[in-house]
Automatic annotation (TrEMBL):
This is ABC transporter ATP-binding protein. Residues 308-336 are annotated as: Disordered. The lineage of its organism: Bacteria, Bacillati, Actinomycetota, Actinomycetes, Kitasatosporales. Residues 315-327 have a biased composition (Polar residues). Pfam families: ABC_tran. It comes from the Bacteria. It is a peripheral membrane protein. GO terms for biological process: response to antibiotic. Keywords: Antibiotic resistance, ATP-binding, Nucleotide-binding, Transport. PANTHER family: ABC TRANSPORTER ATP-BINDING PROTEIN. Residues 10-236 form the ABC transporter domain.
């Protein structure tokens, strides 16, 4: 099977994960990731991202459905998969008294075909911290050490679970550049992140999870295109909203005003912006504070989550959602 012309190295079909007590964290999701592709899983806390990634990493068997990584079941055929993947968990655990270099060497001893300690630390910008004890590292430096260990075995598939949490802006961008280089070198990357800018800038495709289901999927551009663009400006003195051409003729789907500021929403940004600017030119007026922009991934994400929540609420009102989920959701320690 192929995705965007690439052989699929991750295949997920009707995947489900149910925890003790009946809480269904992953509710029948299907997607695939092609070789050399960077795919992002997005979602609010509790959406099922980590539960899904743990199944892909072979840390637990699925409750139902099918998972294949590099053509193998990552849980049942772990020896065939583990040497070919790299895993960066949300939070790593290192012996605090070991130095950074000692930690990498220890990990390398359990890794087939490991990079040298020097190469691994250089890749993540920790070469100068090689002799520092792990307990003395900052939170961001520990995340970079996590990444170094994930890259030790030159993985074909790399799982990154919130890789830039705790990093400053410079550290995040350095990590993004490294991930791009790995992808360009043929590494397949599956990323979970709360930084929507990160997903928008890195991912070729993405899926938005909500309450264990995929609410939207596609390229970042395709997902954002599902939401209206925005135009905001200040009306010139002496002009009112009614002086503009009819909003429907401009392609406006919604609008709001605040004092003299007008905000328009449209699914035809070029048409609306062109006609608005032509009107301003003919009227010989200036639209102060003019701001024209497409929807951001953040706006699309929030709207999709709201719409998915609305569908869930309607379903529950109709009695289609069981009480087991509601009860299980309150159970302390239910990991999603």
């Amino acid at each position: 099977m192929k995705t965007n012309g690439h052989e699929d190295v991750i295949e997920v079909t009707d995947l489900r994960r149910v925890y003790g007590g009946g809480f269904e964290a992953v509710r029948g999701i299907t997607f695939s990731v092609g070789r050399g592709e960077l795919f992002a899983l997005l979602g609010t806390n509790g959406a099922g991202k980590t539960s899904t990634v743990e199944l892909l990493e072979g840390l637990a068997p699925p409750s139902a459905g099918r998972v294949r990584v590099l053509g193998h079941d990552p849980y049942e055929e772990r020896p065939a998969v583990r040497p070919r993947i790299g895993v960066m968990l949300q939070e790593g655990g290192f012996p605090s008294e070991l130095t950074v270099a000692e930690t990498v060497r220890m990990w390398a001893g359990c890794t087939s075909g490991a990079r040298s300690t020097e190469e691994a630390l250089e890749m993540v910008g920790l070469a100068r911290r090689a002799g520092v004890r792990v307990k003395q590292l900052s939170g961001g430096e520990k995340r970079r050490l996590d990444l170094a260990l994930a890259l030790l075995g030159r993985p074909e598939v790399l799982f990154l679970d919130e890789p830039t949490t705790g990093l400053d802006a410079e550290g995040r961008r350095a990590t993004w550049e490294l991930v791009r280089e790995l992808r360009d070198g043929g590494t397949t990357v599956l990323l979970t992140t709360h930084y929507l800018e990160e997903a928008e800038g890195l991912a070729e495709r993405l899926a938005i999870l909500h309450e264990g289901r995929i609410a939207a999927t596609g390229t970042p551009a395709e997902v954002t295109a599902s939401q209206p663009s925005r135009i905001a400006f200040d009306l010139p003195d002496g002009y009112f909203l009614g002086d503009l051409p009819p909003l429907a003729e401009l392609g406006v789907t919604d609008h709001e005003t605040a004092g003299r500021t007008v905000r328009l929403r449209t699914n035809e940004l070029q048409r609306t912006a062109t006609r608005l600017l032509l009107w301003a030119e003919r009227a010989r007026v200036e639209l102060g504070g003019l701001d024209i922009r497409s929807a951001s991934l953040e706006e699309a994400f929030l709207q999709i989550a709201r719409e998915a929540s609305g569908r869930s609420d309607a379903s529950e009102s109709a009695g289609s959602a069981g009480t087991v989920e509601t009860t299980a959701r309150t159970r302390k320690g239910a990991a999603v």
